[in-house]
Write a structure and sequence with these properties.
Layout: E1 23-27, H1 33-36, E2 40-46, E3 52-53, E4 59-63, E5 69-74, E6 81-82, E7 87-97, E8 118-122, E9 125-129, E10 134-135, E11 140-144, E12 151-159, E13 173-183, E14 192-208, E15 211-221, E16 231-246, E17 249-261, H2 271-274, E18 277-285, E19 290-298, E20 303-313, E21 324-333, E22 343-354
Antiparallel strand pairs: 1-2, 2-7, 3-6, 4-5, 5-7, 8-9, 10-12, 11-12, 11-22, 12-13, 13-14, 14-15, 15-16, 16-17, 17-18, 18-19, 19-20, 20-21, 21-22
Length: 355
């Protein structure tokens, strides 16, 4: 049939798909139907020599790793313009089971995303990078509060230095960086009062489709000189477990423990306030509200801190906004490293780009 293309990939075929001479859809293979309920990522690869605007096929059939054939449908979103030899990401969710289980011998190996640069236009001409290697880490947000709460700005990312199929399990390695800035809006000229710099290097090892274990090193510093430097180095272990509540709701729990290594700048009592353990927990609805809480502390000294986040995607309100309405509150010691031994309580509201 002219104008209709079928592309066998991962044991899938496209339904009523207009022929795309330049764009190739490469889906990740979910482990099961339940795993696919959280969304399936599909890479739209532009194999042509000119930019092309394409959101991907509306529906696809795909075979999960356990043999279940699923019908997936693209979630609503803007149509991306894909650079030559670049790619964009689309998200699909199941709308039904497409057929009976396929015997393991008939299953195909999951397709791999080609390691290609993504090229975009920027203020310096064109910029490029292996953007598929970047992942969200801690939330990226900007919030502001009343009086001495001021504004709090944070950006954070994680990067995979090696491909997922690299030897010696190097594909589990992550480098992460988080920077948190405190802006004193209530003071004349509005100076930045303090900044926390936090690089990390860790291995993130999956246990199963709902659990992971991470082991790594984290450095936290205020970036000051020798006399007023506040910094700590920690070796940490973290467990992460997801519980599917149904109805697109999920709970994530992440206990963490650490010990200190190296020096801590001029101040050597930070462990009395930061402690040795933390617990993070969140409840979220897919494309809906998310509530998160992180608590840490020292049981012996009774000092610690808690931070809460609440977020809601603004695109649910219309207008196509790709950001979140975001609220943040902190109480306890050490929100800013410069004030690690000061008990603060602040609440702020603003926007977030990741949560």
């Amino acid at each position: 049939m002219r104008g209709i293309a079928a592309l066998p990939l991962l044991g899938l075929s496209f339904v009523a798909l207009p022929a795309l001479a330049q764009v190739r859809a490469v889906p990740a293979q979910p482990a099961s139907e339940q795993a696919a309920l959280r969304g399936v990522e599909v890479f739209l690869v532009n194999e042509g020599e000119a930019p092309i605007a394409d959101a991907g096929p509306r529906q696809i059939e795909i075979t999960a790793a356990d043999g279940t054939r699923l019908m997936l449908e693209r979630t609503p979103g803007p149509t991306p313009t894909i650079a030559p030899n670049g790619f964009a990401k689309a998200r699909y969710v199941p709308v039904g089971v497409a057929g009976v289980a396929v015997p393991p011998a008939a299953q195909h190996k999951p397709a791999e995303m080609p390691e290609q640069e993504t090229v975009v236009q920027s203020s310096t001409g064109s910029s490029s990078g292996l953007l598929a290697r970047f992942e969200p880490h801690e939330p990226i947000y900007g919030v502001a509060g009343l009086s001495d709460a001021g504004a709090k700005l944070q950006f954070s990312f994680a990067l995979r230095p090696f491909a997922e199929d690299a030897p010696l399990q190097l594909g589990n390695l992550r480098f992460a960086y988080t920077q948190t800035m405190f802006w004193a809006l209530n003071e004349p000229s509005g100076p930045f009062r303090s900044t926390n710099y936090s690089p990390e290097l860790y291995a993130d090892v999956p246990v199963d489709e709902t659990a992971r274990v991470a082991l790594g090193w984290r450095h936290d510093s205020n970036g000051r000189g020798v006399r007023d430097s506040v910094d700590i180095n920690r070796i940490f272990v973290r467990g992460e477990k997801t519980f599917d509540l149904g109805g697109d709701w999920r709970v994530d729990v992440a206990p963490q423990a650490w010990f200190y290594v190296g020096s801590s700048g001029t101040f050597h009592d930070m462990k009395d306030y930061y402690g040795y353990t933390a617990l993070a927990a969140s409840i979220a609805q897919k494309d809906g509200i998310k509530l998160a809480l992180t608590a840490r502390g020292n049981v012996k000294t009774g000092h610690g801190a808690a931070e809460a986040f609440v977020s809601y995607p603004l695109r649910r309100l219309g207008g196509g906004l790709g950001i979140y309405l975001f609220g943040q509150a902190f109480t306890g010691y050490g929100e800013a490293l410069d004030r690690y031994n000061v008990n603060d309580t602040h609440a702020r509201i603003g926007i977030a780009f990741t949560r």
